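Sharing a chain and its predicted structure for anyone who wants a worked example. Both blocks are below, sequence first, tokens second.
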Amino acid sequence: MAHLILASSSPRRKELLLQVGLDFTVCSPDIDESVLKHEQIDGYVERLARQKAQAVLALYPSSTVIAADTSLVFANQIIGKPESKQHAFDIWRLLSGQKHEVLTGVCVANAKQLLSVVVRTEVEFQYFSAKDMDEYWATGEPIGKAGGYAIQGFAAKYVKHINGSYSNVVGLPLHETIQLLDQIQQGS
């Protein structure tokens, strides 16, 4: 198999790939992550995953690249990372007692092929009290996380229900990623 590169600086994606025994290096591309006018969210995450893979493949053309982009979506709007405690609380009030989706575009590419898929997972939160929000903010975990939470951490206690891939919510749907990797290897 060709040298494997993860096109991401996400420690969660790295941990997930290590969890399934993959040997890889990391190269995080710098691409414009702006949403295009009239772009649907599933198209957005898939486009970014493909662009990340292509950017790294241009630097290492004999390698196989795994790239991904994850967005949290509520009411057809992307919910980003909180910029402050107040912003985190605003996000949590929005998601409180509601269902939202986590969409990840995954791309696996080499010099011959570029394969991608979008994976959707629905997450339902319990209602958040002011105490819940204060307690969670105090952990430091919400900082730098889309939607202001990390399902693999302290926030798990607020998740009422999940429908779909757990690893997708963490940042990389492992089953689908491995399927794409297998398809690339068979085609090489």
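Comments welcome. The mean pLDDT is 94.
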